[in-house]
Amino acid sequence: MLYWALVFLVVAIVAGALGFGGIAGTSAGIAQVLFFIFLAFLVISLLASVFRRAS
After folding, report:
1. Fewer beta carbons below 10 Å: N end or C end of the chain?
2. Nearest residue to 32 (alpha-carbon basis) of 44, 45, 1
3. 16, 29 in Cβ contact below 8 A?
4. Phi, psi of 37 (to 5 degrees)
5. How many angstroms separate the CA atoms of 6 and 18, rounded?
6. pTM of the predicted model, to two decimals?
7. HEC states along 11-53?
8. pLDDT tens across 1-55, in order?
9. What distance in Å separates the CA atoms of residue 53 and residue 20, rounded to the nearest whole number?
């Protein structure tokens, strides 16, 4: 998931540098959403690991 967030971030940077504002904005938005989903999964995974060790 983090891989796809980085891919869309790179697409947004390249599109922004070439002047494609709409594509850059869309790609940046997708990258942002995927990054926050990745962070949520990371937190859930860490909490599950802590609770498994406590049991």
Report:
1. C
2. 1
3. no
4. -65, -40
5. 18
6. 0.74
7. HHHHHHHHCCHHHHHHHHHHHHHHHHHHHHHHHHHHHHHHHHH
8. 678 888 888 888 888 888 888 888 888 899 999 999 999 999 999 999 999 988 6
9. 49
